[in-house]
Design a protein that fits this description.
Strand order of the largest sheet of chain A: 6-7-8-3-9-10
Helix content of chain A: 25-40%
Structural class of chain B: mainly alpha
Strand content of chain B: under 5%
Structural class of chain A: alpha/beta
Strand content of chain A: 25-35%
Radius of gyration of chain B: 22 Å
Order of helices and strands of chain B: HHHHHHHHHHH
Distance between the termini of chain A: 37 Å
Number of helices of chain B: 11
Oligomer: heterodimer
Shape of chain B: flat
Largest interface: A-B, 28 and 23 residues
Distance between the termini of chain B: 26 Å
Number of helices of chain A: 14
Largest sheet of chain A: 6 strands, mixed
Largest sheet of chain B: none
Order of helices and strands of chain A: EEEHEEHEHHHHHEHEHEEHHHEEHEEH
Number of strands of chain B: 0
Helix content of chain B: over 70%
Chain lengths: 307, 247
């Protein structure tokens, strides 16, 4: 879906992105993570040409972004940012309808699409359509911001620290919604953050960046288990590394099939961290596990978590 | 019922009525003026009708302010775009210089160039009214939140669409405030145009000063003041109408 090939970008003498190459496959949720100034946002903004690259090429869907008019390119790519940037003088419905209207959709189709997206983000359409952004909470504003980015059903979604400014509880809910939407729609998403927990939770692949280069690229579990150097180790954090591993590993890999236990079952795709949490609160060392249809199919035991 | 109550409480209505009555029937106050200023005849200015003076001043102010608004907003848009950023300091300086010239000095310079009458007055009002409009329009356009601008660009609005659908509507209340100040100043300043032969409500004031007829000065001054107050009230209404977001 995205092929970034040897791309560089400098501001004066300072090289912010340094011969960076990265390929993101269709349906991936690729997280770019690093400290401030590592070039992650710059990289993201070069994909939809908010910034021009100095050298190298970026292709989206096989097409060089430099060969397409910038406006047409951006209307095909969803874009959500930390400051959200809802238009304060437009209603929620008009905000979400921005790109569909730019693409000259018929008004009936725009209306249907707005309703569909409000439902997807659990915002009751009759209540929320006519509200103005200042009447919404921070979490609702960010939901509308992401809904607006998805409005024209773009093949690709770029997100620049979209949840960094909301409170932890809202952030948790928004992350769960994004994970759900990613699974349900199969959109390709490039997501910039500086929060490693967020990256581990959402990413199918993580690119850890430093000084304009990718230091390590891999699946969350792979990066946690095999950090390539001290920079990555520092970045992952020495404290709580074991808990991070638990939050990335899935129950499915440690399941004891054909055993049973009492109690409310856990989902097969829950993390080991969630299993540990449930065991702690329920004062037990064994919990039943169910498949997607809710049938109990096995057990997860405390000892299995640390195997 | 409540609508009617609000209409009665509306100052625009009362100031407007008072202004209209004085414009059309100042002569009805003749006995009052004679009581206060005995021996002055005529006691009510009668070389032109007040209505004609008002209409003439209205046209002068409207033409100058409309031109200043268009030019001021256009300049502000230009210097807040990437292409015009380098001209920002120059435009600021020019507008400030325009403001520091006393209007009488602008008239003294323009009269030799364009002659007496309405034209030097319109030019002076235009030059003089430009600064508050440019200042406010630049502030308004720069006050559009960075995130809103970035989102608009990132979603694929063209530069023109961003200007018309995002920047100008969001800056509108601040731009309007600048135009309001400019027009109010212009109404007062326009009276000086009477010294170079423009017809305004300042004409009775200057005639009264020259002929030592205080009633003329009073009549002109009261009407100019009411004109300015009424205009300001109308702008206040427009401002409220421009804020549809229930804030």
């Amino acid at each position: 879906m995205i092929e970034i090939d040897q791309v560089s970008k400098s501001y004066g003498e300072r090289r912010v992105v340094d011969r960076l190459s990265l390929t993101v496959g269709a349906g991936e949720l690729c997280v770019l993570i690093g400290t401030s100034g590592c070039g992650k946002s710059t990289t993201l903004r070069m994909i939809n040409r908010l910034l021009p690259s100095d050298s190298g090429s970026i292709r989206v869907g096989g097409e060089d972004v430099a060969s397409v008019p910038a406006e047409a390119l951006r209307r095909r790519i969803g874009y959500a940012i930390q400051s959200i940037g809802l238009f304060p003088h437009w209603t929620v419905a008009d905000n979400i309808a921005t790109v569909p209207r730019l693409l000259k959709w018929r008004e009936a189709r725009v209306r249907d699409r707005v309703g569909e997206l409000l439902e997807l983000f659990r915002l009751d359409p009759p209540t929320y359509r006519g509200k103005y952004p200042h009447q919404l909470s921070g979490g609702e504003q960010q939901r509308v911001g992401v809904a607006r980015a998805l409005a024209a059903d773009p093949e690709l979604l770029l997100m620049d620290e979209p949840f960094a400014a909301v409170d932890p509880i809202t952030r948790d809910a928004l992350q769960a919604e994004l994970a759900h939407i990613h699974r349900a729609t199969g959109k390709t998403i490039v997501f910039v953050t500086h929060d490693i927990e967020e990256a581990l939770r959402l990413a199918t692949r993580i690119a850890i960046m430093d000084s304009g280069r990718i230091v390590q690229l891999g699946e969350p579990l792979d990066i946690l288990e095999h950090p390539v150097n001290d920079f990555v180790r520092d970045f992952l954090g020495h404290q709580g590394l074991g808990l991070k591993l638990l939050s990335v590993r899935r129950i499915a890999d440690r399941l004891r099939r054909d055993e049973t236990a009492e109690g409310e079952p856990l989902a097969l795709d829950a993390s080991l961290g969630e299993a540990l949490s449930a065991m702690t609160t329920r004062h037990t060392d064994r919990l039943p596990v169910s498949d997607t249809e809710g049938r109990k199919i096995g057990v997860i035991a405390l000892g299995d978590l640390v195997r | 019922m409540r609508r009617g109550g609000r209409l009665v409480a509306n100052p625009v209505l009362w100031v407007g009525l008072l202004f209209a009555m004085l414009l059309l029937r100042m002569d009805a106050l003749g006995p009052l003026f004679r009581l206060e200023f005995p021996g002055i005849e005529p006691v009510i200015y009668n070389r032109d009708s007040f209505l004609a003076l008002f209409l003439s001043q209205f046209v002068l102010v409207a033409v100058a302010s409309l031109a200043a608004s268009l030019a001021g907003v256009a300049l502000a848009v230009f210097v807040t775009r990437p292409a015009g950023r380098d001209f920002r300091a120059m435009v600021d300086a020019l507008a400030t210089v325009g403001q520091t010239f006393p209007p009488a000095a602008v008239l003294a310079i323009t009269v030799p160039m364009v002659g007496f009458g309405a034209r030097p007055t319109v030019i002076a009002l235009f030059v003089y009214g430009l600064l508050p409009i440019i200042e406010n329009a630049v502030a308004g356009l720069e006050g559009v939140p960075q995130g809103v601008r970035e989102a608009a660009e990132g979603m694929g609005l063209s530069a023109w669409q961003r200007l018309c659908q995002v920047d100008l509507p969001l800056a509108a209340p601040v731009i309007l405030a600048g135009i309001r100040v400019s027009v109010t100043i212009a109404i007062g300043t326009a009276t000086i145009g009477s010294t170079v032969g423009a017809l305004t409500l300042g004409t009775p004031i200057f005639d009264g000063l020259v002929a030592n007829k205080l009633p003329f000065v009073l009549e002109g001054a009261v009407l100019v003041a009411l004109f300015a107050i009424l205009t300001d009230l109308l702008f206040a209404r427009l401002d409220r109408w421009l804020q549809p977001m229930g804030e």
